[in-house]
Amino acid sequence: MAKDDLKAKVTAALEKVVNPRVGQDVVTAGMVKEIAAADGKVQIAFELGRDDPATLVREVRLAAQAVPGVTGVKMQIVGGAQQQAQTTPKPAPAPTARELPHLGKVVAISSGKGGVGKSTVAVNLAAALAAGGLRVGLMDADVYGPNVPRMLGVLDQRPAVVENRIHPLEAHGVKLMSLGNLVERDAAAIWRGPIIMKIIQQFLGDVEWGQLDFLLVDMPPGTGDAQLSLVQSVQVSGAIIVTTPQEVAVGDALRGAKMFEKVGVPVLGIVENMSFFACPHCGERTDIFSTGGGGRLAKELGIPLLAQIPIQARVQELCEAGVPVVLAEPNSPAARALVALATEFQDQANSRSVRLPVVTS
After folding, report:
1. Model pLDDT for residues 66-103, shown as the tens digit of each residue
2. Cβ–Cβ < 8 Å for 193, 236
3. Cα angle 210-100-298, degrees, rounded to a multiple of 5
4. pTM, full prediction
């Protein structure tokens, strides 16, 4: 099929996808910026405005995939820069955090920097809590690097949408919502602050979570739009800060903890990941990333050191296979430390979930 013919067929298919916000199809509304087609492969540059439903990305991709002759679809998502430039936006007041009792206790899993194993801790903590009989949801708010679907073995699955409600996926007893299940794995996520807030609000309010005991929120590294959007959108019971022992990570983790304190979210404790390596043959302990950083940070902040998770070769392998180590190898050193973390986490969450007014200045 000629590439122009395929492009025309894809365009016609996208004209059937309606944006409910404006009451027009996505082509007429100008959301489809470019369509390229060659050898059955289709690339779509799609503009998602600040108030547009994030589920439109999935609807557009599915519509294009259904076109005869299409063998693959890649989505490039861009923020509504042109739409925003056409008007002079007025500063909007910060939204009031809602109480959503059906979500149970909402707890942010955060870190000051990337590469410290925050998502690994979040996934295994969620799996350990679920294995203990609790109703657990895991919201992947790391919009720039949504890795949780891979770690739970549901990377290729898509959540169902029924009557404009998104039904979360479920794996290992954990309910999951992630942008990684809505966009292509190699899609470039160019998200502006208002779009990040919209995504987080939709994940909180438009997902059929059911009744939960805990909703764990895997945050992106740092202290940016996602963190502020979360605490402005829902009552957050607390936060856990994940770090590694070396000072370069501890310094960033300190800034992350201070950010949560500033917006009135209690920090429940510190998790020191990759704390040490214990040789599986002789048992000798090696402090690969220095030692004691997590303990010093906890002491400085006056909060508990919840756990010291050792480095274990199989943890990374199991993450890529989609099976948490707490379930696959429950007697291993890392799994035992993570299960102990789940117990300590429950104690802290039940005793320290005090929410103060949000301060944004």
Report:
1. 999 988 888 887 765 444 434 434 444 445 567 789 99
2. no
3. 105
4. 0.72
Q: Do 213 and 105 touch, CB atoms closer than 8 A?
A: yes
Question: Residue 290 phi/psi, 5° resolution?
Answer: 65, -160
Of 320, 317, 313, 311, the residue nearest 338 (C-alpha): 311
**Tokens matching residue 141:** 């708010």
Sheet holding 189-190, edge to edge: 32-38, 41-48, 72-79, 189-190
CB 44 within 8 A of CB 34: yes
Provide the 3-class DSSP secondary structure of residue 48: strand
8 A C-beta contact, residue 235 and residue 99: yes
Q: Is the dihedral of CA 241, 247, 249, 252 positive or negative?
A: positive
The phi and psi torsions of 26 (rounded to 5 degrees) equal -65, -25
Q: pLDDT (tens digit, 9 = 90+) per residue, 178-211?
A: 988 887 665 555 556 677 888 888 899 999 999 9
287 secondary structure, DSSP code: -
